[in-house]
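C-alpha cells for chain A. Residues wanted.
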C-alpha cells in the first residue's frame, strides 16, 4: 500500500528567518581578547615613538579584526553563567558582608544609605550589582556603550567632580586596568580613580570601613606571573595612593580586590622594576609617576 505523504507545512518551505546564535568557544574568545590587547599595545607603542603611520596601520588592523565591538562580545562571553558569571557577584557579596547592601527580601535596616557606584568598563546594565536599585545608584561608562544604561565615555576624559555629589562611594574597575595598554597610563587611571571617591559620606556609617571603595579585578597572570608586578608590589602601589586592602579573592583565572580609600596616600611614585624573572612570564606593569 502506498504511504500517503503528509502535506508540508508552510514553515517547512520557508528559509529560516533567524539562525540560532552561534556561541564563541572559550578558545575563540581568548584569542580575540589576546589579539586585541597585543595590537592595542603595539598601537600605543607606535604613537609613543611618534610613528603615526604604523599606529594608523595597526588601528586599521584592529578594526579589520572586529575592533572593540568584537572584543566586548568576547569579554561578555566570559561573563556568561557557564563560564563563572559576572565579576560583580563578588563585589555584591562583599558589600552584603559589610552591610552596605541587603537583599530586598530581608531589608530590616531602613536606615540603609543609597550608595553611588561608578562602573568603568561596563558591558551590561543587568549584572549582579545592578539589581540593587534603591540601595546602589549605578553610573556605567564604557569606551563603547553596549546599550541603554551605559554611557559612552572614556574615564580618563570624564570631567573631574566639582562637588561631593558628583563623587562615588564605590568604583569598579573590573578587567579594565589590564585593558589599558600602557603602564604609565594604568598608574594615571588609578590616581584618577581616587579623585572620584567621596570621603564626606564616611560619617554616615563610620563603622563601615570599606566605603569609599575600589573594586579591582585583574587576570591572575598580571599579578602571579609578571616580571614587573607581584601582589606585594600591587598592594604597595595602592597603599601609596591611599587605598588599603579590605577583601581579596583568588580564582584560577582572576584576582579580585576591594580597597578602602583612606585619603592618606603617600604620593610615592612607582617605577618599572623587575621583581622576578622566568621564561614564561609576562611584562604586565603599573607605573605611577
Ligand atoms: C574586558 S572588558 C571588561 C568588562 C567587564 N567590566 C567585566 O568585568 O567583564 C574591558 C572594558 O573596559 C572598557 N574600558 C577600557 N578602558 C576604558 C576607559 N578608559 N574608560 C571607559 N571604559 C574603558 C573597554 O571598552 C572594555 O569594554
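Reply:
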Amino acid at each position: 500500500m502506498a504511504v500517503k505523504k503528509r502535506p508540508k507545512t508552510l514553515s517547512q518551505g520557508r528559509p529560516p528567518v533567524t539562525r540560532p546564535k552561534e556561541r564563541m568557544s572559550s578558545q575563540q574568545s581568548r584569542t580575540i581578547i589576546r589579539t586585541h590587547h597585543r595590537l592595542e599595545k603595539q598601537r600605543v607603542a607606535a604613537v609613543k615613538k611618534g610613528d603615526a603611520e604604523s599606529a594608523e596601520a595597526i588601528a586599521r588592523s584592529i578594526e579589520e579584526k572586529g575592533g572593540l565591538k568584537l572584543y566586548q562580545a568576547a569579554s561578555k562571553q566570559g561573563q556568561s553563567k557557564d563560564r563563572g558569571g559576572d565579576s560583580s557577584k563578588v563585589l555584591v557579596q562583599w558589600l552584603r558582608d559589610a552591610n552596605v547592601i541587603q537583599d530586598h527580601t530581608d531589608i530590616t535596616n531602613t536606615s540603609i544609605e543609597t550608595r553611588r557606584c561608578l562602573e568603568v568598563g561596563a558591558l551590561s546594565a543587568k549584572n549582579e550589582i545592578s539589581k540593587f536599585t534603591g540601595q546602589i545608584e549605578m553610573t556605567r561608562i564604557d569606551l563603547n556603550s553596549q546599550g541603554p544604561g551605559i554611557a559612552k565615555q572614556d574615564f580618563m576624559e570624564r570631567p573631574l567632580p566639582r562637588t561631593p555629589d558628583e563623587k562615588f562611594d564605590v568604583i569598579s574597575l573590573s578587567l579594565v586596568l589590564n585593558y589599558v595598554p600602557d603602564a604609565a597610563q594604568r598608574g594615571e587611571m588609578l590616581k584618577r580613580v581616587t579623585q572620584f571617591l567621596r570621603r564626606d559620606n564616611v560619617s554616615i556609617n563610620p563603622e563601615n570601613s570599606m566605603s569609599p571603595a575600589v573594586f579591582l579585578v585583574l587576570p591572575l597572570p598580571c599579578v602571579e606571573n609578571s616580571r614587573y608586578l607581584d601582589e606585594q608590589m600591587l598592594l604597595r602601589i595602592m597603599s601609596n595612593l591611599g587605598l588599603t586592602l579590605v577583601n581579596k579573592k583568588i580564582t584560577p583565572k582572576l584576582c579580585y580586590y576591594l580597597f578602602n580609600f583612606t585619603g592618606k596616600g603617600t604620593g610615592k611614585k612607582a617605577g618599572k622594576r623587575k621583581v622576578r624573572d622566568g621564561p614564561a612570564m609576562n611584562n604586565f606593569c603599573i607605573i605611577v609617576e
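The chain has two domains: 26-82, 88-261. Confidence is low (pLDDT under 50) at residues 13-20.
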